């Protein structure tokens, strides 16, 4: 009996592992599922993992020579020194994904996807991205000799893709917003025998990389937290984190799941709106937010949001949306009190925690983890908006403090 298989969440059809994106039968989302017996066997012993690929038994099977890695994962879980005590959450932690090789959590998903593309002999890889995913695919794609192509929305500032350009991937602008780049990537992958490694739910393998965030949190805390706050565009990272704790539960390592909190920006919040209304996800027509890394309107792939909401419900979590001003204030607070420089799309998790604490939804003793998914240098200009001048003096002038 095989230890793993791909299962379609829409029609239930099962597939052996291969170069799949969505279900060939119905277009539904595919996820990689393991048998209970296999999970119990590989998780029976507690041991410390130093990097993501130390969890290789809980990742898609790939030959070691096809593994493309920069030693991603193994990121620190930092207990808050000042913010937690100040807001009355004594067990507040930050999972600092900014320490990954290209500065974001995307490295986990991309490392797995690029490795699988090599495993299946794909001619190359393509990604639609507004920044972090493109940088990661460019770095890992070049290292794996996989001809990476990065499709970005037309209005993406070059500063957001400078990292991808520097690594050597081919960067192409697509007219429209992220959703147009998303569909262009699907077309190119089909036509060129490329693997589509867009970090939505298009790849069942990327989710497996995100799982390792949760495995690390579980090891680092020594228990299951009460809340995990996760920035959400389409939601594969949230689903991966949920999936990891579900697998730990199935293996008998825990009897409960953390409440996962999906955090979106008010300027692009199709998942938060759907969660609040209890309806199916409707695409966002005019996305506009400072949290650009999670500004995903979901046009034409609303099912991504529906699956994310399903995971939230299974953990008794919630989805919420945050105003840009609150997000920027949270980012400055992180930098000035904890010394962590995170992009707005990451700092938004702290803003969400503060909102829920003010609403009485979080108790002082609750163990809370804010996932900080990307480095502040990814979008540093967001914090300097409106600051057109920096004080200047001549040498010899008295500096008044």
TrEMBL record:
Gene3D superfamilies: 3.40.50.1100. Residues 69-374 form the Tryptophan synthase beta chain-like PALP domain. SUPFAM superfamilies: Tryptophan synthase beta subunit-like PLP-dependent enzymes. Its EC number is 4.2.3.1. InterPro entries: Ser/Thr_Dehydratase, Ser/Thr_deHydtase_PyrdxlP-BS, Thr_synthase-like, Thr_Synthase_bac/arc, TrpB-like_PALP, TrpB-like_PALP_sf. It catalyses: O-phospho-L-homoserine + H2O = L-threonine + phosphate. Catalyzes the gamma-elimination of phosphate from L-phosphohomoserine and the beta-addition of water to produce L-threonine. This is Threonine synthase. It comes from Candidatus Blautia merdavium.
């Amino acid at each position: 009996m095989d230890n793993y298989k791909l299962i379609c969440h829409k029609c239930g059809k099962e597939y052996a592992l291969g170069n799949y994106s969505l279900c060939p039968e119905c277009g539904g989302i595919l996820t990689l599922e393991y048998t209970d017996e296999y999970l119990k066997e590989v998780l029976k012993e507690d041991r410390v993992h130093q990097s993501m690929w130390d969890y290789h038994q809980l990742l898609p099977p790939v030959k070691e020579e096809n593994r493309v890695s920069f030693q991603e994962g193994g990121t620190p879980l930092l207990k808050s020194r000042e913010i937690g005590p100040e807001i009355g959450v004594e067990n507040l932690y930050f999972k600092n994904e900014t320490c990954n090789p290209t500065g974001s959590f995307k490295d986990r998903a991309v490392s797995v996807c690029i490795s699988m593309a090599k495993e299946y002999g794909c001619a190359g890889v393509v990604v639609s991205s507004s920044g972090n995913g493109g940088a990661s695919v460019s770095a890992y794609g070049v290292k794996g000799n996989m001809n990476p192509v990065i499709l970005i929305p037309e209005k993406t500032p070059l500063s957001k893709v400078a990292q991808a350009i520097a690594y050597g991937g081919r960067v192409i602008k697509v007219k429209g917003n992220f959703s147009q780049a998303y569909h262009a990537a699907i077309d190119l992958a089909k036509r060129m025998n490329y693997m589509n490694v867009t970090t939505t739910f298009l790849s069942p393998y990327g989710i497996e990389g995100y799982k390792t965030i949760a495995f690390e949190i579980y090891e680092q805390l020594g228990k299951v937290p009460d809340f995990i706050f996760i920035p959400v565009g389409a939601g594969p990272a949230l689903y991966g984190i949920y999936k990891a704790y579900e697998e730990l539960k199935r293996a008998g390592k825990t009897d409960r799941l953390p409440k996962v909190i999906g955090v979106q920006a008010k300027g692009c919040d199709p998942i938060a709106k759907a969660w609040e209304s209890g309806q199916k996800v409707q695409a966002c027509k005019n996305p506009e937010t400072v949290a650009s890394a999670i500004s995903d309107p979901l046009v034409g792939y609303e099912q991504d949001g529906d699956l994310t909401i399903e995971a939230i419900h299974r953990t008794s979590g919630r989805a919420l949306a945050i105003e840009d001003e609150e997000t920027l204030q949270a980012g400055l607070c992180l930098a000035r009190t904890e010394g962590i420089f995170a992009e707005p799309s990451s700092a938004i998790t702290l803003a969400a925690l503060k909102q829920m604490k003010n609403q009485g939804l979080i108790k002082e003793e609750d163990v809370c983890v804010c996932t900080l998914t990307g480095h502040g240098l990814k979008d540093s200009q967001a914090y300097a908006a409106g600051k057109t001048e920096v004080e200047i003096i001549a040498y010899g002038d008295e500096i008044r403090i």
